[in-house]
Design brief:
The complex is a heterodimer of chains A (about 475) and B (about 400). Chain A is an alpha/beta fold and about 475 residues long. Chain A is globular, with a radius of gyration of 22 Å. In chain A, a hairpin with a 4-residue loop joins strand 21 and strand 22. Helices cover about 30% and strands about 20% of the residues of chain A. Chain A has twelve helices and 23 strands. In chain A, about 55% of the residues are buried. By secondary structure, chain B is α/β, with parallel strands linked by helices. Chain B has nine helices and 19 strands. In chain B, the strands form four sheets. Chain B has an eight-stranded mixed beta sheet. Chain B has a six-stranded mixed beta sheet with strand order 8-2-1-12-19-18, sandwiched between helices. Chain B has a three-stranded antiparallel beta sheet with strand order 9-10-11, with no helix packed on it. In chain B, strand 9 and strand 10 form a beta hairpin. Chain B is globular and about 70 Å long. The chains are: A alpha/beta (about 475), B alpha/beta (about 400).
Chain lengths: ~475, ~400
Amino acid sequence: MGETADLVVVGAGPAGLAAAVTALAGGLSVALVDSGTAVGGQYWRHPPDHARPAIPTADLHHGLREYRALRRALSTARARGRLDLRLAHHVWSVTRDDDGFTVHSVDRRRAPEETAVALRAPRLLVATGAYDRQLPFPGWDLPGVLTVGGLQALLKGGGVAAGRRVALGGTGPFLLPVAAGLASRGVEVVAVCEAAGPSAWLRQPGPLLRNPAKWAEGARYGLTLARHGVRLHPRTAIVAAGGTDRVSSVRIASLAPDGSPRPGTERRVEVDAVGVGWGFTPQLDLLVPLGCHLTDSGDGSAVVAVDTGQRTTVPGLYAAGEVCGVGGARLSLAEGRLAAGSVLADHGAAPVPGRRRLAAARATVAGQRAFARAMARAHPIPPGWAKWLTDDTVLCRCEEVTAGAVRAARADCGASDHRQVKQLTRAGMGWCQGRICGPAVHCLVAPHRPYAPTERLIATPVTLGVLADLDDAGENTEGAAHE
Amino acid sequence: MTLHRGVSALKVVVVGAGAVGAACAFHAASAGLDVTVVDRGPVGAGTTSRGEGNVLLSDKEPGPELDLARLSRALWDEAGDELGAASFELEPKGGLVVASTGEGLAALGEFAARQARAGVRVERVDDVRKLEPHIAPGVPGGVHYPQDAQVQPVLAAAALLRAAVERGARTRTAEVAAAVAGRNGEVTGVRTAAGETLPADAVVNAAGTWGGELGRRLGAPVEVLPRRGFVLVTEPLPPMVRHKVYSADYVAGVASSDAGLETSCVVEGTRGGTILIGASRERVGFDTTMNPAVVTRLAAQACRLFPFLRNTHLIRTYRGFRPYCPDHLPVVGPDPRAPGVVHACGHEGAGIGLAPATGALVTAHLLGRPWRGADPAAHTALLPDRFLTPKGAAQ
């Protein structure tokens, strides 16, 4: 099978974009793969090109100048035939052999039609990002209850507000931009429930003081929210949602220091949509089966272990962005550049970013990681969160497994991790394969260890027909690229 | 074997909390023995969690394994009555073996006739679409095996272990490092990796793929090798596949000693609605790498057998290692080289199905008399002696 490129980059968010553009600038040929229909990832998600003039989203974004520069660099490289851009390609497996990596994907540009595409390169860079971490509560499976990331994606991708009266809950600074984005579009944000206390930041002022940009960003959101009369309620949480066909109300409770709801503090608020987010879970599905070592990120999730040049423990395999730890776009961009610098150095090409720019990227990574660690300490998962679960609260929506069933698996069979709970209760065996409920089940049975996802050898559902055709093609052409 | 002195006090350490170890513990504890189950990890975390939960007679030719399988099939029903069949999803769904050619059908018919003479219920099927409406047209025929069944293997191991504990057994999380031997070389206990000694009159090697290594540590080495297999899992569907359906070449694959990749198509539905697709066999040691070529081959074979699967999504693939002995028979019984060590491993892909009979047979060996229909005298072909020279050395 011939090589597709010198480097395959999976994920075209900030980390993957920065990596691809840096590697292209260094003279490498690059294949950039993303499941989305445009580059930018979740962070720079935009309406489709033809709809952009009609849907203003500039106020939702940061670093648009950088985004446009990266897009321009991609266009130039593509015109010169050095970039193989594969949008709407879903990677279902990555394998490694002596000569490099094969990225097995399906092209879904004409979905539901699927075409198998295998990309090969001696080096692979994975920048698949992260997704919202969910902690279930009674009613969380009602229509109208979304993740905060989902609300943000609707705003950025189509200018759509999910409701007219929205309550937000969870923990972390990401609640603020979502609240501000909704409020500026006329949505009544009835409550922003932040589980952490107002002084959580004061316990580790160092990283914050060293990041004045983050102060300024926070202050801007604060102003927007104040202008629209939106109130932030520290040490509270959305502990239940009610409604028949879809959500019509939430119950908000004050939290005790351990994070459990204080009895008697619950109040009911009418809403037509809810957004909840408890930080993010790194998307490690492609990395775990390749045998990369993982490490504790400090925010409750395991992340891929990388050296100071973003090399994983698997030779030829690099990682950048939130798979290495959640820390925002600036960190992701710097990690993407560092990773590509390492690819270039390992390839034998002179590192194009130059020593000074690489040093600057390293400094950015160090500073932003310190900030992210402080943020994680200030916004932990409240230890007592499980107290708001009733035994009949569904934890695994795909297989409809309740908290009671998971607790019984722990009590009666000694299940001590999410994999064992899955075997005993089916939690995590359905469509999403535990991507949604896995972190929550983990937080329930093993809260003191970082969450490491189960190995998923199939990274995205793919029809058996397209796989069967690959086998038939392979028989005829002796392992030629399946395209 | 001379283990059965003072039976009421006989202390048994079962190493392995998979389906086989749990069944050994269940039967030994039911017989009143003092049982401790030791495993490095949780219940059913090894090969038990990596299979489809087969309880099959259909794929076994007449001989020692089929004898054990027939007993085991009856004991699974007994376990269902005692522990609640629903608690481990015991489903007597029946197997349907189909031939793809007239020639294959004739060979399958002969095979089934021999099985019938050995006591297996077989029914020739001319129109397989009466049993499986969604099967590909043009299948010349097959054989229906109504006794074939399925269990959810981890739930089954957990249920057996729970029942063992209710009957007095204990469980320990530990790694066994070595046997402790008495003055005459007989086992008096096991030492754990943490340095602790657990007293034992008998040690049962139910360590699955790890059985070879455990045998060495206990001074009773047996050759147990891994044979890798992938299983494909589809999105949940309404019931589309009613039986365990497989092509006649599966039997050849099970019995084969080929080192390279072999695949034979096995398709079945589960209670959860997903469809399981197997079965591949590779001898690659404990290599855990994903092999997309195996996945695509299994997909192609399954789509040929059930064309509707072409539009069905694959949502998961997992792989495991079947623990097999060189002659493809399990090794069940006392090891003459290390008095007190009883093997219960090497079941290859049939460990779930054979677990209850293995547990009963091990218990019978420990008691020195038949137990629940398992008579040591009737299963001598499974003894470890077959690997040893008359003087007791490994051959």
